[in-house]
Amino acid sequence: MNRLLLRPFSASMTLAISAILAPILLVMCALFQPGWLLVVQDASGAVYRFITSTDLPPTYRAALRQWTSEPQFTLVFFTIIARVIIAMFATSFTIAVRPLLRRD
After folding, report:
1. What are the CA-CA distances from residue 92 to residues 81, 98, 99 (Å)?
2. 8 lies in a domain?
3. How far apart are the first and last CA of the chain?
4. Residue 48 lies in a domain
5. Domains in the chain: how many in total?
6. What Rg do the C-alpha atoms of the chain give, in angstroms?
7. Residue 80 pLDDT
8. Is residue 47 part of a domain?
9. Once rounded to an integer, what is the mean pLDDT over residues 58-74?
10. How far apart, in whole angstroms, are the C-alpha atoms of residue 18 and residue 65?
């Protein structure tokens, strides 16, 4: 029962921490690696243009243009990086703590 309750909490905490960590990564990248940030922004623009230029009906295309933008794709990229970092730390923490929790 304990694991059943901890799983949604763990997923929620991962989302919350990545939502905080992504803008921090974005600012750090802008300060320390502006050339790399330009590459990410160019790639985000290419993804945005690809998605909005599909053969969707005009109603859906207009909605996509309204609800998405290039900066959002840039932030999504940094959110994915943040989630990978969190997963690596969480996995290493779990591996380190699990033997301590086993009581034979």
Report:
1. 17, 10, 12
2. no
3. 20
4. yes
5. 1
6. 19
7. 93
8. yes
9. 85
10. 25
